[in-house]
Amino acid sequence: MIQYLDLIREASKKMNLVSSKDLDVLVERHLVDSLNALVGIEIMPDLHCADLGSGAGFPGIPIAIARPNITIDLVESRRLKSLFLIKAIDELKLENAKIIHGRWEEQSAKYDYIFARAVYNENDLRELALPRLNQGGALIYFEKFMKVKIIRSS
Q: In this predicted model, which residue has the larger pLDDT, 10 or 18?
């Protein structure tokens, strides 16, 4: 996790990965918040997950590090952020994570869990994500800092 945060700090000198005021509070503001998504849900091995609008990799990369027995697609439409994610996954040797460069709406894969942090409002997110969940899956939506909402597929 420390190596990942160092990559963010270094890349942030050249691009806007996270707010400059957040660079000193990456652990509290982004890392812990991302891992909070794992509280209260049971993520079984071999599940296929997605991080919708991954940006700097929150929550997908911390989840991939914490749960190496699942696979997670980091979906990011912005080229520079996708390039950062490719570098981070390579340097961290995360074999369970991959980048999908493109818009979520253009993808068709289905997932067991979809994580969404700081993207879309809840209604739009439901419309975009719920049809892409496997039966029994869930959308894990970060409503605000340290508050996660779990929406189960029907």
A: 10
